[in-house]
Design brief:
Helix content is about 35%, strand content about 25%. The chain has a 6-stranded mixed β-sheet, sandwiched between helices. Strands 2-1-4-5 form a 4-stranded antiparallel β-sheet, with helices on both faces. The chain has a 4-stranded antiparallel β-sheet with strand order 11-12-13-14. The protein is globular. With about 400 residues, the chain is α/β, with parallel strands linked by helices. The protein has 16 helices and 17 strands.
Amino acid sequence: MSERLRIENLYKVFAKDPTEALQILRGGGTKDSVFGKLGQVVGLDGVSLSVPSGAMYMIMGLSGSGKSTLARCVNRLNEPSAGRILLDGQDIVPLSEKALREVRRTRMSMVFQHFALLPNKRVIENVEFGLKLRGVAPAQRRKRAEEILSVVGLARWGYHLPHELSGGMRQRVGLARALATDADILIMDEAFSALDPLIRTEMQDELLRLQRTLNKTILFITHDFQEALKLGTRIAIMSEGKLVREGTPQSIVLEPGSDYVAAFTREVDRARLFDAHSVMKAPTVLWRGPNGIVVGGAGGGLLLDQQEHVVAGLGEAQIATLKQTGELPAGRGPYLCVPEGARLVDVARSYRSDHAMGVVDDSGKLVGLLGAEQILARIANLPSPGEAA
């Protein structure tokens, strides 16, 4: 996956002259030590990260952790004190005001927490706004706005004023306005946190639906770990202006790395977070012959064709016969196959103790085997069989 955004050693000190503060931070000092000595507030302390193209990249942390400061530095609403911000390899930190305005008009869009809609303009005019600033012709921008309103399910509301819409619908207008510009990066700063819980859930689902269609690169700022887990392909967790943990949602829950990060993970519904791929075991080949391949698993085994697709199950008795004679028995046993991306809550519902269970990729090729022990251990946060406690 190609890299869309790279942040290298980014610092933000809220001061006219941050030179001494930067020296303290680079020498191992902290946000608190800078404030104690200089009275200057540190927003970012040497943050580096990489955002792949098409990723839903979550930046999260508690209040004051630096997550919103980071978002505002990326589009230079806040000027970084030091460091680089590379957009498709181009450092946007030294850009002139004119060049920066062009980046904001064409390459970055932002969705704010409180909608920021123009109250006296109709919905469709709000959606057109970024295109109007870009100088797009009226007929062209109206056509684009109508298309995007249809995508977000608001086609019938284009000629209403914002106050006639519900909070969730207004936030959807804000999202449509950002999407209309077809920018390279969409920055969402606590975009759903002001919404009621039910509407917030609906907007999260809507964003996931849109992402499956549009495959945008999204930098999403949130203080809600459950939201980060639900939406994110990768998560960066911040504290005191530093990036303290970065990785996939599953890797962060498995290996928090600190008490601060672990505190976010305690109430996670692991059955809905982890997938079959995360707990499967590699297949053990028991037999290979002209009629296929036999691999062993809990509850028996699986017979594969030469392309490693599952064609039948083998019960424990058939496996025992195979080991004794070296020949493929005529009998067949039951089996189940699940996609490697299947969540454990769904895998557990389909599990049968007398069935061998295989994990397959998108092409149907067997990539692993599953047993009850691995499924239950991951859900209960216990070491999987064979793992160290």
